Amino acid sequence: MKCIIVDDEAAARAITKQLSKKIEELTIAEEFENAIDAIKYLNGNTVDLIFLDIHMPTFSGFDFIQTLKNPPLIILTTSDKNFALDAFEYDCVVDYLVKPITPERFAKAVARIKERVVVSKVEEEPVTSNSEETSTVGNDLYVNIDRRLVKINVPDICVIEAKGDYIKIKAEDKNYVVHSTLKKIEEKLPSHLFLKVHRSYIINTTKIVDIEDNSVLIKQDVIPVSRANRKELMQRLNLL
């Protein structure tokens, strides 16, 4: 993976470069001390991954992301824990590393990137529904696809994500995009399996493989958990 580093601290850039050298799949093409120079570089070059600091003079990491029409995958690096929830509002952000970054945590972030890349290459195109009609029978959720009721096995659903006027249902073997809302779909799901952890996400709690700070990992997806929902999630998992 071709990468660049965008960080105003020379020491932080050096540490990221050193950590990257230990992972053979990563190649650091360039490093920049400010976002403006990075934008100029990206206007004529493509990369697979950006290690991006949030707090930089004049132009923050979030400002930088918003300037990119088709951003590559991004790992945010910062000394501030307070922006994790904001960070995961961006689909391109795969992980959020808090400095000082340990080799183990860095390797874990890169593993998430590699999983995302592999899945995106083999994932089938989602089946799209233009109807709001859904119903649940036993362990089956039915969604209206091209005037046909398509059955989804409820326990196979991993994550449901709000996408404007649509929701994206990510199941074990296929994705579905349905014209509906999280509120409507939440009413049709068994509460002992599913929990709304963020205004944009409902998760199947049995699919969680990792919990860290204000996020959970389900398959290759890092899902943000809001402060308001974190306590209920911990109680659900008997962690309080």
Report on the architecture of this protein.
This protein has helices at 10-21, 35-42, 61-67, 84-87, 103-122, 182-186, 227-236; strands at 2-6, 27-32, 49-53, 73-78, 93-98, 127-129, 134-137, 140-145, 148-153, 157-163, 166-171, 175-178, 194-198, 201-204, 208-212, 215-218, 221-224. The chain has 240 residues and is α/β, with parallel strands linked by helices. The strands form four sheets. It has a six-stranded mixed beta sheet with strand order 6-12-11-10-14-13. Strands 2-1-3-4-5 form a five-stranded parallel beta sheet. A three-stranded antiparallel beta sheet has the order 7-8-9, with no helix packed on it. The longest helix is centred in the middle third of the chain and has 20 residues, at 103-122. The chain is elongated, with a radius of gyration of 19 Å. The N and C termini lie far apart (40 Å). The model is unreliable at 121-125 (pLDDT under 50).
